[in-house]
Amino acid sequence: MNPTTLPSADEPETGGSLTPTAAEPETGGSLTPTGNAPVESAPPLPALLTVDRTDEIFQQLVAELEPRGVLETEYVRQMARHAAAGELAHQSLAAVRRQVARLTAPLLATTAAASGGADTLLAAVACSGGVDRADRRARAHARGFQRAQERLRALQTERRRPGQTANDRWFPFARERHCEEFMAERFRRGQQPCPRCNATRGVYLASRRAWQCAGCRRQSGLREGTVMHRSALPLLVWFRAIAALLAAPNISNVALAERAGINRGATARQVAARIRRALAAEDGGRRLAGLDQFLVAAQGAAESSVAAATFFSTPHDTQKPTSSVPIG
After folding, report:
1. What pLDDT does 39 receive?
2. 240 or 2, higher pLDDT
């Protein structure tokens, strides 16, 4: 039998396991993590960087552009996002330039004295990488705003294009030149005298689109004395708007814009206000260039033609009726 080794007094019996000492406390098989200090939270962003004006700009653009439908509203929202981000980018660009100037000025103090201080400082600011990045960011948002605006305008132009509906087929003006000929004709008939000498004789200058008085040689625009005077809108747009208000005096501004082909709601409101004031005035016929009577007559003639065409295209019984009274 092998001899058994007895534990000495310096090595007490442990039953096959080591007894943890005071230097090595029992951990239950896991290490206690050291440095349990709480993690500090990140400092809050400055108030300037937390301000988001996207919603505010969006509401302003909606009131101005009056989008309709999901797609037009989304383009307006894109414009608002680019506008808000562009404002912040421009503020950042100015701040970067100021900061670079502050940091660069002491370093270039000696060089500036020898080589023209302002030029050296401006060149250092312009060559800074931060300025370049901020400038690219601002220009990118400007391009994004412009793209969204162009797409919105294309949608609205297509939506507001005057359509040839059943109510518009009687409209006698198809081109801008037709409207110009109508406006020139009222000068030839003496319906619009010269504002200076009150003469009615003159000549129409087609190249200038103006009427030249034979008495004082004053040249008057075709829109002289009407609600269309000093307006950038085409005559065809005005003629359609007048026709729409004559047909429906209580038409809404949105419907008027669609019928006349006006892109902005504010412009439609101004056009409607001018026409309504002219209709209520005693000299409304002169202010409307006689269109109030001409368009009503044209519509009545068109409706009569349609009625006549409908009557003659309808098959009628041509057989002579037989008398129910016996002869002889």
Report:
1. 52
2. 240
For residues 74-93, give the mean pLDDT.
86
Domain boundaries, the chain: 49-159, 176-191+222-309
**Range in 156-170, 179-193, 278-292, 303-317 with the lowest mean pLDDT:** 303-317
Per-residue confidence (pLDDT) for residue 278, from 0 to 100? 94
* Full 3-state SS string of the chain: CCCCCCCCCCCCCCCCCCCCCCCCCCCCCCCCCCCCCCCCCCCCCCHHHHCCCHHHHHHHHHHHHCCCHHHHHHHHHHHHHHHHHHHHHHHHHHHHHHHHHHHHHHHCHHHHHHHCHHHHHHHHHHCCHHHHHHHHHHHHHHHHHHHHHHHHHHHHHHHCCCCCCCCCCCCCCCCHHHHHHHHHHHHHCCCCCCCCCCCCCEEEECCCCEEEECCCCCEEECCCCCCCCCCCCCHHHHHHHHHHHHHCCCCCHHHHHHHHCCCCHHHHHHHHHHHHHHHHCCCHHHHCCCHHHHHHHHHHHHHHHHHHHHHHHCCCCCCCCCCCCCCC
